[in-house]
Write a structure and sequence with these properties.
heterodimer; A: 67 residues; SH3 type barrels; five-stranded antiparallel beta sheet; 5 strands; globular; B: 464 residues; Rieske Iron-sulfur Protein; Naphthalene 1,2-dioxygenase Alpha Subunit, Chain A, domain 1; nine-stranded antiparallel beta sheet; four-stranded antiparallel beta sheet; 25% strand
Chain lengths: 67, 464
């Protein structure tokens, strides 16, 4: 987990983000409003149905990134 | 001139029989509050121009009355106008003047909306809302009606209002003078540069009245005329054609729109204009020749100051500009001024006009400064308890308008006063305030669409 809040405005398309729930998602678009990312779920241990789905990801849900 | 509840506008505060109007309608805070509901929430208002949002995701933050709105083009290319206020707690979802975006995100709690207005992002939707919030019910508030006319975007909050072109009525030809090309081709206008915005300490009706066709205040601009800010270095405009044209006050009584216009005689040749630059002068000479060859009513018209009810002012010719008088309070108005050119005009023409436009109009424009000084001091001097007891007079030319004005085969619509010789009248102002009073008293658009009732018998007769 990252040491502090992640500035999601700086995250590039293609970056994988780790979410508070333990899910991982790949960024497909970044509106750079600092609040939301558009991402596709790669892993979702608590809700496997989400894998492959594209959703908006809230900044405060992003706890880490993987390059 | 007492006011009885919401009644008494036409019978007291606005007395068109004597031509007297109370100062209360300019300085009274309660009347101002009622205007927001009765005038601005029901009228067609100018929001912006399509050339400001050419690409999907483009937006321009505008105003309708006191309220902030977003004019935007969604990803499918459709134009929308939304209230700039989050449905959750009301925070503005867009705080820039213009730009391009995929979403409008509220910075307060993070609700996010697509450019089509749909609510697409709700933080902790699954967790805190248990996926129970019906997002389809909580999109941005969209205007009830929208019309894109020759690139101009107009909007209305009232679903029962008539369509925009019906609202405009016979005034359409005067609006076309600003939107069509100098050579008469349809819808050639594009915005030149940005929008000038500034605050003035007066009620919005002072400038609205002035631009309705106040030809009486030209003495205010005497110094500008003497300096010669015009495009030929003389006066403030080119006046060559005006020596032979009819100068008219035209008022469309059931709509509240009015203007000055100049009506040329048949077969009149273009006069020299824009003489400060030979290339620009030749361009306009050619355009004027072409315009005269085109069919339709506008080939013989020269545009002049006019007003579309309630708060949009036109100056179709010199300078070619449009102003919106946004109400901020009874005592403050935010002016937005838009400048237009033909989109395919040579760059040298656009540059020449830019210099002329800002020399004339806007917060630093010499003519506009004259106007603002008048409005601002008139407002301030009308707020006191003694001043409020004494109405303004609008009786100039009262009873002298005609409804069948014709000149060399050109039939002018509306109520007309020929001011070629008499210089001025106050028919346009009476028309503005008459319509204003109707709006303030009417409870619904059914009462305001008087033309539908009056045209019914004629239509019935024609059907027989």
């Amino acid at each position: 987990m990252s040491d502090g809040p992640i500035n999601i405005r700086d995250l590039a398309v293609g970056t994988t983000v780790v979410l508070l729930s333990g899910a991982e998602a790949e960024i497909v678009d970044n509106p750079k409003d600092g609040v939301w990312l558009f991402a596709r779920y790669l892993k979702s241990p608590h809700d496997p149905d989400l894998v492959g789905a594209e959703e908006m990801i809230f900044a405060q849900d992003v706890v880490d990134t993987r390059s | 001139m007492a006011m009885n509840g919401t009644q008494g506008y036409r019978s007291g505060l606005v007395d068109l029989e004597t031509g007297q109007i109370s100062r209360e309608i300019f300085v009274n805070d309660d009347i101002y509050a009622q205007e927001q509901e009765r005038v601005f929430a029901r009228s067609w208002l100018f929001v912006g121009h399509e050339s400001q949002i050419p690409k999907p995701g483009d937006y321009f933050v505008s105003r309708m009355g006191e309220e902030s709105v977003i004019l935007c083009r969604d990803r499918a290319g459709t134009v929308h106008v939304f209230l700039n206020s989050c449905r959750h707690r009301g925070m503005k979802v867009c705080r820039y003047d213009d730009g391009n975006t995929a979403v409008f995100t509220c910075p307060y709690h993070g609700w996010s909306y697509g450019t089509d207005g749909k609510l697409v992002g709700v933080p902790y939707f699954r967790e805190a809302y248990h996926s129970e919030l019906d997002k389809s019910q909580w999109g941005l508030v969209e205007v009830a009606q929208l019309c894109v006319y020759k690139g101009m975007v107009w909007a209305n909050w009232d679903a029962s209002a008539p369509p925009f072109l019906e609202y405009l009525g016979e005034f359409r030809r005067f609006l076309d003078l600003i939107l069509d090309g100098w050579d008469g081709r349809e819808g050639q206008a594009e915005l030149l540069g940005g929008v000038q915005k500034w605050l003035i300490p007066c009620n919005w009706k002072f400038p609205a009245e002035n631009f309705s066709g106040d030809s009486y205040h030209n003495i205010s601009h005497r110094s500008v005329d003497l300096v010669g800010v015009g495009p030929s270095g003389k006066s403030r405009r080119d006046y060559g054609e005006l020596n032979v044209a009819k100068k008219l006050h035209v008022a469309i009584p059931d709509r509240g729109h009015q203007t000055i216009t100049y009506l040329l005689p048949k077969d009149h040749l273009p006069q020299p204009s824009y003489q400060n630059n030979p290339e620009v002068a030749e361009y306009f000479r050619h355009c004027e020749e072409e315009r005269r060859k085109r069919p339709g009513p506008n080939a013989r018209l020269i545009g002049a100051p006019g007003e579309i009810f309630p708060n949009v002012a036109l100056l179709p010719r010199q300078p070619r500009t449009l102003a919106v008088w946004h109400p901020k309070s009874a005592h403050q108005t935010e002016v937005w001024r838009f400048f237009f050119v033909d989109r395919d005009a040579p760059q040298v023409v656009k540059n020449f006009l830019r210099d002329y436009y800002i020399r004339y109009s806007g917060p630093a424009g010499m003519t506009e400064q004259d106007d603002m000084e008048n409005w601002n001091y008139a407002h301030a001097a009308s707020r006191g308890v003694i001043a409020r007891r004494h109405p303004y007079t609008y009786e100039m030319g009262l009873g002298h308008a005609v409804e069948d004005f014709e000149f060399e085969g050109y039939r002018m619509p509306g109520r007309v006063i020929d001011i070629t010789q008499i210089q001025s009248s106050e028919e346009p102002m009476r028309n503005l305030y008459g319509r204003w009073a109707q709006f303030m008293e009417a409870d619904s658009w059914d009462q305001l669409m008087t033309w539908r009732k009056s045209s019914a018998p004629r239509e019935l007769a024609a059907a027989k």
